[in-house]
Amino acid sequence: MITTANRIFVHPDYADLFEETFRNRARLVDRMPGFISNQLLRPVNPGDPYIVLTTWESRAHFEAWVRSEEFRQGHARSGTLPKEAFIAPNKLELHEIILDTTRPDLVPEPRGKPFKVHRER
Prior knowledge:
By secondary structure, the protein is of the alpha+beta class. About 20% of the residues lie in helices and about 20% in strands. It is built from 3 helices and 4 strands, in the order E-H-E-E-H-H-E. A 4-stranded antiparallel sheet has the order 2-3-1-4. The longest helix is centred in the first third of the chain and has 9 residues, at about 15-25. It is globular and about 45 Å long. The mean pLDDT is about 90.
């Protein structure tokens, strides 16, 4: 299993609009093979980012999502907020789950190579 943590730095004046946009998302990821969950975490401390946390059965499932037409469609709406809504670039992190106390029989995700979402130009 893996998780992804997309850290999104939202200007406080746009927090409510950001949350509403996320609530009304396309939900295409929810139907993808290997998808487990999607959470939006609101920061408590000023300056900290929102975190979009997803969990997947495997890295292969996540990579299939990133290459899919559903991914392109789902993220096409992410450009609806103005540039000033974001105070810094977002940062995507991939984490391999090696221990989950709710799943004692979990087989740890094998150690993988670094992952880059966007190709370098």
